[in-house]
Amino acid sequence: MNSYTGVWRSGSHRHYLWANVSWSRFRSKWRENSRHSLRLVDMNVHLVGNSVRYTGVWEHGTGAHYLWVNASWSSFRAKWRELAQRQLRLTVLKVLTINGRRRYFGVWRPGRDAYYLWVGADWANFRAKWREQSARSMRLVDLEVYPTSRGLRYAGVWRRGMGSHYLWVGASWSSFVSKWRDLAARGLRLTVVKSYLRRGRRRYAGVWRPGRDGYYLWGNTRWQNFVSKWRELNGKNLRLVHLDVLNVRRVPTSPWVRLHIKILTAPTTFPVNTMVESMRRVYRAAGFEVDVASTETLNLPALDDLEIGTCTRGNTTAEQDTLFGNRNNVGANDIPVYFVRTTDRPTNGCAAHADGVPACVVASGATIWTLAHEVGHVLDLNHVNDNTRLMTGNGTFNIISPPLPVLSSSEINTMDNSPLTREL
Fold first, then answer.
1. In principle, which of 26, 94, 219, 293 could form an S-S bond with 54, CB 3.0–4.6 Å?
2. How deeply is 62 buried, as exposed, middle or buried, from its count of CB atoms within 10 A (0-12, 13-18, 19+)?
3. pLDDT of residue 407
4. pLDDT recorded at residue 416
């Protein structure tokens, strides 16, 4: 099964997408599109059994171009040198192991600028080479990460370039999305995305270059959903510039948090649904989805004004323990949220719970961000002294949120490592 991830940038030019075909069909399409002034801007290769399947992204273009596939390293390097002398520069590099042999695939476009190719390095050496090339005004234009018997190896294509740039490797999806949003606000646009498996978990790498144009990232989806998004974005003058295809046993979604809503007293300031939707917005911005698996009304008047003691991690009262024992439909890695009238000590919410019994409480006068904040504590986040952050320790009523409260990269990593966040 293939999982697709794409990077879009502003554009209104002609374009084409052709996926999951044999070499003969791909070569035929490449030649046909060449005659129609369409040039390959990205290519992916993956195996179906022992057969290589090709996927390509084209956009309007003219001038010389070249495609060289399924080559040994010595053959590929010789072709790279030959084409460099003919004023063609490598723009796309793919590496695939076929029947135990490593094969190389490349796309070339016109150029007279400086260029560089570095293949088969471990991360430490690749990072050192990236820094060295950066100091020489060379910028990474494509990146490959692939498995070998000695661990993951990295390959890069560089060309002459100036200006800001960024490389981010080994991130979870949620962390990658957070970095993508952060760098977009700093005038950097994602140009390359690569997904791969490390110790059985999917990880992401990305390359950024300067840009102030429109942009979009859509990841971890099946082909039908990807094509639907591609067509939708075409109508918004966004063009696919980079496509990642990974063959996996299953197509994951974003990490998600599963809630069970337990209502003793309905909130009076903001409805439960409004709190949930606000939580979804801030969590989704960090790369997480929120699922409400069940909603239940509890008739427990003795616990409606709940004694919470000091409300510190790992310290609960007898009333909290009794309330949290009501766990209908709650799975081992789910989070029940109990909506009560008040707490004693008065507060908008409390996330103190016993080990192995994740849960939190929200009082009826809670703010729009209390639910997201308290669940954040259940996911092991701590207070911070910053009112732009979801986890401010100054009270969620003081949150300054244009447009949303912030979850930092370190907080996102903590959430991602929690057993209470999962990938489908």
1. 26
2. exposed
3. 93
4. 87
State residue 251's pLDDT score.
Answer: 47
pLDDT digits (tens, 9 = 90+) for 244-297: 998 765 544 567 899 999 999 999 999 999 999 999 989 988 888 888 889 999
- The alpha-carbon radius of gyration of the chain (Å, integer) is 25
Q: Letter for the amino acid at 300?
A: L
Residue with tokens 């200006």: 163
Q: Indicate the length of the chain as a whole number.
A: 424
Match 């002294």 to its residue by tokens. 385
Give 167's contacts (C-beta < 8 A, 6+ positions apart): 127, 130, 140, 143, 205, 206, 207, 208
pLDDT beneath 50: ranges in the chain: 251-252, 424
- Which residue is listed with tokens 């309007």? 60
Two structure tokens written together for 2: 């293939």
The amino acid at residue 370 is: T
Calpha distance 299→278 (Å, rounded)? 27
Question: What are the structural domains of the chain?
Answer: 2-247 (no CATH), 256-417 (3.40.390.10)
Residue written as token pair 């003795």? 302
Full-model pTM: 0.67
Under 8 Å between Cβ of 44 and 54? yes
Bond prior to 345 in cis (omega within 30° of 0): yes
Residue environment code for 260-294, b if the CB has 16+ CB neighbours within 10 A, otherwise e:
bbbbbbebeebebeebbebbbebbebbbbbbebee
pLDDT tens-digit readout, 219-250: 888 887 788 889 989 989 999 999 999 876 55
In the DSSP assignment, the letter for residue 165 is -
Residue 57's nearest CA partner among 69, 70, 45, 39 is 39
The strand pair at 215-221 and 188-198 is best described as unpaired
CA pair distance 173, 144, nearest whole angstrom:
17
Per-residue pLDDT at 74 = 97
Identity of the residue numbered 242: H
